[in-house]
């Protein structure tokens, strides 16, 4: 086996998509409890854009190479390692980093056997997206059957997963917001959302209150941040949970924000991340995905929506597409 591999590097350590290039670095070695996986495909996530620009706090255990989700074949296991895996197994999984490469070392506790029904591209688009959606809905949002849910950025990969999870678990209603009629139509027609609202030309908070007869929504999952903060407080139902996963519109609130709803409605507002969590926490989410969602991927009840697939070498083009905010689903890169 060769000692070197191709991996995506960033000229100067950070910068624009134009700074991405195919570098050559050493193939990592698996330690106890780890596997070396030869990567077939990997998924892009918005955190990758921030990391590329030097704006994302990378966990200390992560390699400098970007990428947290992948599919591939186990090449080698670390000493005294099994956990139900062996060399030659087809897998997909979640890592702290390093997936933009020909090989990755990852804990076997974060690997999942790839069903034959899934393509390499589909499998690579599951881990970060569906685990994040599961975390927001079940562990943080404390969803139970019959509650209503609002997913902001409805055509994002996490919300696409979240809408499907909420629907299969008998949500009373699933609402979305998005920035174009095309995305709203996709969420309602393709995903089965109850209704969608265009935040660019609608007062989405007022419309949701109308749709719920003034009651509001039980769980709100938001990636937008400051621009949606007041609206989230307004549409939250009594005892609602607001889960903050991002701040795409910024983190500084205007002076006119009225936080009285937090007290009056007994709201719980909680921010959450996934990549900074320890392996034990991530493993619980991985197990939840295997038990709750994996069978529904096998019979295609759950669908993985892929916007476009790029060859590994076209990583800069893939990043530019993700930056455009025009996608509905995952962007995947493949390695031959």
TrEMBL record:
GO terms for molecular function: NADPH binding; oxidoreductase activity, acting on NAD(P)H. Residues 15-333 form the Enoyl reductase (ER) domain. Keywords: NADP, Oxidoreductase. The keyword Oxidoreductase applies. Gene3D superfamilies: Medium-chain alcohol dehydrogenases, catalytic domain, NAD(P)-binding Rossmann-like Domain. InterPro entries: ADH-like_C (IPR013149), ADH-like_N (IPR013154), ER (IPR020843), GroES-like_sf (IPR011032), NAD(P)-bd_dom_sf (IPR036291), Quinone_OxRdtase_PIG3 (IPR014189). The keyword Oxidoreductase applies. Pfam families: ADH_N, ADH_zinc_N. NCBIfam families: quinone_pig3. This is Quinone oxidoreductase. It comes from Aspergillus ellipticus CBS 707.79.
